[in-house]
Amino acid sequence: MAEGKKTAAEIMVPIGDYNTISDQATVYEAIRVLRESFHRDGRAWYGHRSVIVLNGEGAPSGILTLRGILRAAGLREMESDPDLKADSWGWNYVNKLREESRLSVRDIMQPLGIAGVRARDDLADVARALLKHNVNDLPVVKKGGVIGIVRAMDVFMSMDAYFS
Amino acid sequence: MPITRLVRDIMVPIEEYPVVYEDAMVIEAIHALRDSFHQKDGTWYGFQSLIVLDKNDKLVGLLTLRGLLVALKMREFVEHILQGDPTGLFFTPHLQGDLRINVRKIMRPINLLTAQEDDTIMEALLTIVKYNINSLPVLAGTKPVGVVRTIDLFWFVGELLD
Questions:
Q1: Which of A29, A30, B65, B115 is the most exposed place for a label (fewest CB within 10 A)?
Q2: Is the pLDDT score of A96 beyond 70?
Q3: Which residues of B touch A89 (CB under 8 A)?
Q4: Number of domains into which chain B is organized
Q5: What is the pLDDT of residues A140-150, one digit of tens each?
Q6: Where are the alpha helices (DSSP H) in chain A?
């Protein structure tokens, strides 16, 4: 049995470590901010890969990921594929986006309020939650507030204790 | 030209990608992936998946972070059932296999999702978005030649957004 199981709070990236962006920013601004949170060195990319989205009150309301940007880029192509539309966006939502002239960060971010883990949840709990919600990032909640983001990467870096 | 940029222009060539064998145990896969990593100024960089080879060095799958999360879930489930008492395996022999998890059990088989090297990057992007994956093996016909990832597409996404 693994000794000293790490918790979500111990492996997460604290929320203060992230760059932020307003939920009203455009997709173009989002790309620029994401690029700034990266560095490139040959084939290896480093950086946090995500940006925290702030709502009108300045509170974290979502995570902006590379996937969100790619979904925006594929939107026009997706309009002609019913499967994609149903899975990724939903019919009504696609219609709404067509009517609006410009996508905002709020349209493409992963909202924080839907799924998360508790600060004291252990590694296996985090793994199960990431798998269940089919994401690579989840908010870590303590006393009703988001204190950080825990990623599949963070679980990976600590999971060897379960396999020795 | 940008509209028709091809997968082969942006993919990671297969020679540059980290590999692991399908009969390796989870702990070996973890080390193989970690070997491709380093930490600098508090952030990690490197590859986040591995090409999986069979004993004939044929590419049979991709091992991703998701596969490793599944391994942890499987392992922890068995530990939970046993409650720390390995004699319980006598009564649950079907679980013994789940204690010895190899890469083959947790990888994504190669034939499930692939791109061709002369597909457009938009075609690769749609596959990655539709199936919710982050890395996609690239073939020239039936021959594996590279891997294309979310991050490789992101670099060129400005061109795809009118």
A1: A29
A2: no
A3: none
A4: 1
A5: 999 989 999 99
A6: 8-11, 27-36, 66-78, 82-84, 91-99, 105-108, 123-133, 152-158
pLDDT in tens, B19-66: 999 999 999 999 999 888 766 565 556 789 999 999 999 999 999 999
pTM for this one? 0.86
* Mean pLDDT confidence for A53-79: 88
3-state SS assignment for residue B151: helix
Q: What is the mean pLDDT of residues A51-67?
A: 94
Q: What is the pLDDT of residues B117-146, one digit of tens each?
A: 999 999 999 999 999 999 999 999 999 999
User: CA neighbours within 13 Å on the CB side: how many for B118?
Assistant: 4
- Window 13-42 of A: residues touching B by CB (8 A cutoff) are 17, 27-28, 31, 34, 39-41
CATH number at residue B54: 3.10.580.10
Residue of A nearest to B153 (CA): A70
ipTM of the complex: 0.87
**What's the rounded Cα separation, in Å, for the pair B90 and B92?**
6
A145-151: strand order across its sheet: A13-14, A145-151, A137-142, A117-118
* Phi, psi (rounded to 5 degrees) for A154: -70, -40
CATH number given to A8-162: 3.10.580.10
d(CA B32, CA B30) in angstroms, rounded, equals 6
A6 pLDDT exceeds 70?
Answer: yes
Sort strands B38-40 and B19-21 into parallel, antiparallel or unpaired.
unpaired
Helix (H) or strand (E) holding B19: strand B19-21
Q: Please return the burial class of B110, using the count of CB atoms within 10 Å of its CB with bins 0-12, 13-18 and 19+.
A: middle
Our measurement of the distance from residue B130's CA atom to the centroid of its chain's CA atoms, rounded to an integer in Å, reads: 17
Chain A CB contacts of B31 under 8 Å are 160
Whether the per-residue pLDDT at B5 is higher than 50: the answer is: yes
